[in-house]
């Protein structure tokens, strides 16, 4: 039973290291030795011989977990520089005498877990440089003085060898031995002369006799090793009598640390440690002993003890005499030392003798109550850890609960997981020196008014996470803890707890770490972090603040980060965010770590990250990002050491992915985990579900000629369209200038021609098609010998193109008469081409030859737009209105004739 207890951990380890399909640890199977820095690892390769092809300069060779049956020295002769050799977990039956001759520099040799049987002096005679020899778990049968040549040996492990005696030799030997492991052997008696062979080993400090079924200890058996400092007796089956004998044997040593775990020491009496009273014992571990009873005065003798471990026992009660005498004790570790089902009691003043105690660990313990004297007398206590304990007094902490700590300079109080439901005002007010208060994993359900923390002026860290989201805040919640640097409220607050004005955090000017994650917070005020200029870490993940950053948010996006310019870490993952306002991350030049994963980001605005030039870690995993564009990502990716952006539906086209893929390929300082198999293209179909790294950048380069072609052809189309439009709307102008050009080059100008021209017509009539009837009815009758009009329809020159004919006729006319109607102004051909020529002729020839006859009232603006004429440009007599009243028609005719009869020369 006992041996099984001891072996179990060993067996688990063995199982974990064993090769094969039942391997507990998922190691990648290697197929050959790994060599790195002169160290060769040939473990787990099913080798049956030493590989001969390794570099000859290796200094360390691991051949463990193979199928070696022997190690012939010649097989190691290629590696004469070996200092370390492990052949553990093989089936070697013999240590070859030539081994150390072949390896003169060998210092450490591990032959554990083999079948070595007989070991003789000759086998290790040449191993004089050996400092470390592991022969654990063999079938050692020692013959003669096998270790006597090992003058430099410091560590010798012969555990688990079924040795029948601790006597490893008769001669005095091993002068430099520091640690001897005799654990898991079968001897039941320690004889007086068993350790005599170590008589000169003044450096021996550690002796391990765990799981040795010692029954008898002869007096004086530890005398040869009286320089011992550490003795490990875990799992040894000793009765109270035997243990007392052990203590008396140790009384003559310089023992400092005793490991007495799993020894079934159910009871300590006031005599148990008596023999140790003159030793310098400073460390005593008695955990896992199922200890029930500690008699009063049991530790009276251990006045120099500094650390006492009593974890995992079943202690029934503590009283004011239990720890008597432990006046140097600094640390008392009592995790699970008394458990609820044993209904333990902690009496008044139980810890009073421990005036030097600095750390009291009562993790996972249980007791009825904490009274006003439970911790009295702990005048040096700095740390009290009661986490995951069950004390009914802690359910509702009030100003009396912890009053017994009033005399302690307590700095750290750990009340994690102690089922606290309510904290009354001034509960901690006696803890004036407290800097750290841990209240995680409780059931605190109340409004924090601030009075709860009264007196905690020195407190710098309050941890209050995982409190069932039932903590309400007020603006005053933290007014009494102005020095707070760390505040965690993860999964503790109600959804509206921080939506207060002024913000509950406003008194905390020194705050550097604020955790508000997992609270379903939906409303944050822009001023929530105002005044927190020192804030470095802000955790807001797993809330519901998507609305705050939407541009559609009433009153605009809430830019709550504008008050925290020193932010180094920002976590906002899992918030349903789909927008980052352009200004949201402005000024965060110190930000190194940004986590925005598991949101709904798709298209991010340009330049939102441009101020983040210190960014080292960026996490955008699990969003809806399709494109990684340089406009957004160039700055934040510039100095990154870790990028996590997998599980996005990437669009693998040249426009969206080329830049990113090129960057990924070129970057040599950014670690991108899972790049090959977690960054997959979603679109286009050709790349669906393939790694973005399979996206071929060359396909974009091949596009270049096509792109040029595309640009050229689109340009051509655009130009064609422009030309068409120009021709459609400005064609007249082109024709106009063309005609002028032709006329000029042919050598005559209008003016020149005009000088001696016999005008064939008195006026050239320009009118809209619809107005021909008016012209016919009203103007044609005016024609006679002295007055002749030119009407294009009638007088066009045969055999000439229309424009040429128009120009020719115009030249032959003294005046040009526009019959102005809306229709005329709308006819582009008529107005633009003809009018332009007319006006051009008018200006060029310096003549005053235009007459306007308005049949309708036309706005001057329209006139100027269509005919490039304004009424004011002409003499008043050249502007005529067709009269509405019939009786005025003769007057109109008169005016018209006058206008026609006027000389064309302005100078005349
Ligand atoms: C022990 O190692 C030293 C170098 O550290 C070497 O010079 C010496 O020869 C070795 N001794 C033996 C017996 O091989
Ligand atoms: C205990 O320690 C003191 C000082 O460290 C030393 O002088 C004394 O010899 C030690 N006693 C024993 C029994 O080791
Ligand atoms: C140890 O306990 C016994 C009774 O159990 C008592 O008679 C004796 O005085 C105690 N010794 C010391 C040193 O306290
Ligand atoms: C408080 O107790 C918890 C739970 O035992 C532990 O994980 C944590 O490290 C302790 N914290 C401190 C500061 O001692
Ligand atoms: C604890 O606080 C008191 C004043 O409140 C101070 O005098 C004392 O030095 C502090 N002790 C420690 C260990 O900080
Ligand atoms: C904040 O920290 C500074 C410097 O560490 C300190 O002087 C100051 O007292 C602290 N407390 C407050 C409330 O500012
Ligand atoms: C990555 O770079 C190498 C050369 O530096 C080049 O051969 C390869 O095509 C590039 N791959 C991608 C995906 O850009
Ligand atoms: C990374 O590559 C750049 C050139 O692309 C080079 O200047 C720089 O030294 C490299 N850095 C490391 C750590 O290899």
Automatic annotation (TrEMBL):
Record SUPFAM superfamilies: L domain-like, Toll/Interleukin receptor TIR domain
Signal peptide: 1-26
Transmembrane segments: 709-727
Keyword terms, alphabetized: Glycoprotein, Immunity, Inflammatory response, Innate immunity, Leucine-rich repeat, Membrane, Receptor, Repeat, Signal, Transmembrane, Transmembrane helix
A GO term, aspect molecular function: signaling receptor activity
Gene Ontology CC terms, in alphabetical order: plasma membrane
Subcellular location: Membrane
InterPro entries according to UniProt: Cys-rich_flank_reg_C (IPR000483), Leu-rich_rpt (IPR001611), Leu-rich_rpt_typical-subtyp (IPR003591), LRR_dom_sf (IPR032675), TIR_dom (IPR000157), TLR3_TMD (IPR041015), Toll_tir_struct_dom_sf (IPR035897)
Name by which UniProt lists this protein: TIR domain-containing protein
The species this protein was found in: Champsocephalus esox (pike icefish)
Lineage: Eukaryota, Metazoa, Chordata, Craniata, Vertebrata
